[in-house]
Amino acid sequence: MKSEPDTFGIHDLLNKPKQTEHWDGVRNYQARNMMRDDMKLGDLVFFYHSNCDEPGIVGIMEIVREGYPDFFAFDPEDKHFDPKSDPANPRWIMVDVKYLKTLSRTITLKELKLKEELADLALLRRGNRLSIMPVSKAQWDFILTLE
DNA sequence: GCCAACGTTGGC
DNA sequence: GCCAACGTTGGC
């Protein structure tokens, strides 16, 4: 899962009560579907810092609540308000994530790109701008060997 | 700040 | 259903 450190970085998650926060504001259907359909309690997630000096994987989180309505979509004052999301039939979904650890160093995008083992990593696919992407078990294990 | 790559919107 | 226009993402 990607986030811009200037907006919400891994340190912000670390400083939340119970080191837990809802992953709100996703307004892309593919990303929403992954939160709604694929993410299960206890699943592990890489925290990726995007749009910053050193884009890359900085830590690990755990899913502690499965998909439920992103109620910020109902709030006209919220940045991610969506008038088309009906509370009776919510359009947007979020999950809750809990901080697990910060990697001993950032595994940079630049470095990931060099690895043959990660040729199929969704993050590295051309033009991919999704904020949530799948990582296979093999990819996950390999990435952790880079730490 | 630039720009490529996408997703979304809305007229037709 | 097509597609041009527009907005956003995010690396560089």
Write up what this structure looks like.
The protein is α+β, with helices and mostly antiparallel strands and 147 residues long. The protein has a single domain (2-145), classed as ph1033 like domains (ph1033 like fold, Roll), CATH 3.10.590. Helix content is 22%, strand content 28%. It is built from 5 helices and 5 strands. A 5-stranded mixed β-sheet has the order 1-3-4-5-2. Strand 3 (44-49) and strand 4 form a beta hairpin. The longest helix has 10 residues, at 29-38. The relative contact order is 0.21. The mean pLDDT is 94.
Output the keywords.
147 residues, alpha+beta, ph1033 like fold, five-stranded mixed β-sheet, 22% helix, globular, DNA-binding
What is the element layout, followed by pairings?
Layout: E1 2-3, H1 5-8, H2 10-14, E2 20-22, H3 29-38, E3 44-49, E4 56-69, E5 93-108, H4 109-113, H5 137-145
Parallel strand pairs: 1-3
Antiparallel strand pairs: 2-5, 3-4, 4-5
The protein binds a DNA duplex (12 and 12 nucleotides) through loops.
Short description:
The chain has 147 residues and is of the alpha+beta class.
Supply the number of helical segments. Answer: 5
Give the domain tally: 1
**Helical residue percent?**
10-25%
Assign the CATH architecture.
Roll
What is the H level of CATH, i.e. the homologous superfamily? ph1033 like domains
- Largest sheet geometry: 5 strands, mixed
| Strand order across the largest sheet | 1-3-4-5-2
Query: How much of the residues is beta strand, in percent?
Result: 25-35%
Round the Cα radius of gyration to an integer and report it: 15 Å
User: In CATH, what is the class?
Assistant: Alpha Beta
Along the chain, the helix and strand elements come as EHHEHEEEHH
What would the CATH topology be? ph1033 like fold
Mean pLDDT: 94
| Inertia-based shape | globular
Topology, number of strands:
5
